[in-house]
Amino acid sequence: MDKKRLLAGIILFGSLWGFSECIIGSSLRDVALPAGAIMTGVFAVGLMAAIRILYKQPGMQLGMGLVAGGLRLFNPFVGCFICSAIAIMAEGAIFELIWHHLSKDLSELRKPTFSISMGIISAYTLYVGGFIVTQILTPLFSSA
Fold first, then answer.
1. What residues contact residue 22 under an 8 Å CB cut-off, 6+ apart?
2. Tens digit of pLDDT for each residue in 4-58?
């Protein structure tokens, strides 16, 4: 895959993820729903897994996470949420770590039990990992 197409995909899908976090996530928070769990567990994992299967490019989800986190950091709709911006960036990095070896052989995902298990494990690990990274890095960034 050429670098221009890869960069365009990172910016496109990262922007889609970032703006959905800004718009849908803020709307979910307004109606007192768990926006973090819904956006990470459904939208982010689904988008990153679909893009990994379509593009088959390691590193793309990390770039998408950086773009989406940057958009969440400079949210034009509500304001800055440094915690969620850090969590989004961490989720992209954690997804890359989980799927690094798996994406070399996608034939394993054809088994329904394996694909469901990977989805559940990925969603839980992303949510918990994003929370832990946020708790560590937010005080460092906000005190600087």
1. 71, 72, 75, 76, 77, 78
2. 999 999 999 999 999 888 888 878 888 888 877 788 778 888 899 889 888 888 8
CA distance 104 to 80: 37
- Quote the radius of gyration of the chain (alpha carbons, Å): 15
At position 76, the amino acid (one-letter code) is: P
CA distance 45 to 2: 25
Cα-based distances in Å from 2 to 6, 7, 55, 86: 6, 9, 11, 29
Number of domains in the chain: 1
Q: Counting every residue, how long is the chain?
A: 144
Quote the pTM value: 0.84
Q: Which of 31, 25, 32, 14 is nearest to 77 (CA)?
A: 25
- The residue segments making up the domain with residue 37 are 3-143
Asked if 48 and 66 count as a contact pair (C-beta separation under 8 A), the reply is no
